[in-house]
């Protein structure tokens, strides 16, 4: 989408320039007190969001930096790319677009954190949270269909036949966090069809169990009969609860549906955790030609992988949970390290230089940011790390 691509490309122009020169990087770290503005993520989308968020958090430091004599005295800053980088940071439109981009895509980032996390199975939450994300995105655009329809269309395309299967629909239905707070879910034809399809598959060739689960048990669950109506069953109101554990405790009077619900709600909705076993193999293979026997190798991977699981459980218990979207590998953040691949702000705020009260838009006009950015709009972005070196007498 052009609106978001523009602000992402501008952010990349700035980060590529800063990280491409020793002096500019030193200057950046001086003003940010040693903090980086690039945050590598597990995917390119995560890297983009985390880096934009990092830039937004350091907005004041970055704008003070580019108007400081320390920055202006650097030879590289006087180059065409240096002027572009300075103009981007001083351009108020850039910051408004960053704010809008973060506001729009934050709901999707929440979904990513949910599915990639290890705290609880995510199958019971993925469909409901995607619907919630779509509502929040519409609100971010002021419920103006002409603005949000393109984003919603992309999400719908990605969900179709992937995240709206009968399995996702029944998990959404059997999670009381959603179905009890919105009883109309029980009457939605698409969800009802998905439920029947799953019941027929789960209890294949057992018509008695199918009848029990679909015609008797579901009605008791819907009407909150028996244990479902007890006060301590209201734990479902807390988003952090585990729906599979909830069904094991409160679904004893409807065993047919209980068995099905606990099995489905115990599922994950992402394979990212499975990929960690490969990183275990990579950690053991410290040499290209490793003489370890297969048995010894498997034991080492088993120990290493289970040690990580134990550490994860301890962190969960102590609530020391790191951001699952962050990564130590910069592969997915390369776009912010090297060159490659309308004003719609929803928040009105006073955008002035601290201490003197001069609007940043006035400062931007004084240095000619619009003229500077206009010069580079038609230029194609070149590739770094292909033999081209930076010219800098200071370096």
TrEMBL record:
GO terms for molecular function: protein dimerization activity. Coiled coil: none annotated. Residues 240-306 form the HAT C-terminal dimerisation domain. InterPro entries: HATC_C_dom, RNaseH-like_sf. Pfam families: Dimer_Tnp_hAT. It comes from the Eukaryota. This is HAT C-terminal dimerisation domain-containing protein. It comes from Miscanthus lutarioriparius.
């Amino acid at each position: 989408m052009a609106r978001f691509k523009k602000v992402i490309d501008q952010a990349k122009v700035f980060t590529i320039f800063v990280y491409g020169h020793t002096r500019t990087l030193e200057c950046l770290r001086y003003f940010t007190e040693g903090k980086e503005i690039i945050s590598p993520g597990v995917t390119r989308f995560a890297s983009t969001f985390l880096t934009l968020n990092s830039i937004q958090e350091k907005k004041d430091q970055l704008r003070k930096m580019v108007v400081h004599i320390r920055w202006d005295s650097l030879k590289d800053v006087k180059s065409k790319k240096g002027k572009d980088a300075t103009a981007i940071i001083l351009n108020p439109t850039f910051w408004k677009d960053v704010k809008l981009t973060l506001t729009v895509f934050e709901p999707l980032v929440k979904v990513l954190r949910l599915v990639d996390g290890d705290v609880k199975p995510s199958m019971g939450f993925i469909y409901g949270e995607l619907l919630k994300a779509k509502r929040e995105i519409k609100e971010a655009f002021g419920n103006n269909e002409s603005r949000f329809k393109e984003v919603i269309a992309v999400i719908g395309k990605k969900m179709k036949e992937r995240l709206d299967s009968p399995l996702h629909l029944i998990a959404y239905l059997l999670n009381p966090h959603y179905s009890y707070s919105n009883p109309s879910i029980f009457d939605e034809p698409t969800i009802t069809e998905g439920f029947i399809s799953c019941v027929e598959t789960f209890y294949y060739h057992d018509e008695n169990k199918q009848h029990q689960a679909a015609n008797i048990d579901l009605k008791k669950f819907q009407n909150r009969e028996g244990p479902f109506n007890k006060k301590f069953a209201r734990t479902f109101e807390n988003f952090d609860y585990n729906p599979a554990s909830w069904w094991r405790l409160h679904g004893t009077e409807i065993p047919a549906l209980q068995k099905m619900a606990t099995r489905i709600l115990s599922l994950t909705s992402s394979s990212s955790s499975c990929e960690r076993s490969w990183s275990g193999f990579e950690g053991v293979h410290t040499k290209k030609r490793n003489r370890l026997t297969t048995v010894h190798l498997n034991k080492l991977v088993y120990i290493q992988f289970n040690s990580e699981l134990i550490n994860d459980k301890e962190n969960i218990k102590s609530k020391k949970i790191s951001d699952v979207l962050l990564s130590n590998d910069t592969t997915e953040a390369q776009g912010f390290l090297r060159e490659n691949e309308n004003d719609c702000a929803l928040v009105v705020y006073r955008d002035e230089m601290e201490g003197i009260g001069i609007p940043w838009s006035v400062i931007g006009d004084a240095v000619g940011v619009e003229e500077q950015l206009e010069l580079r709009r038609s230029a194609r972005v070149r590739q770094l790390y292909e033999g081209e070196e930076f010219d800098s007498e200071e370096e």
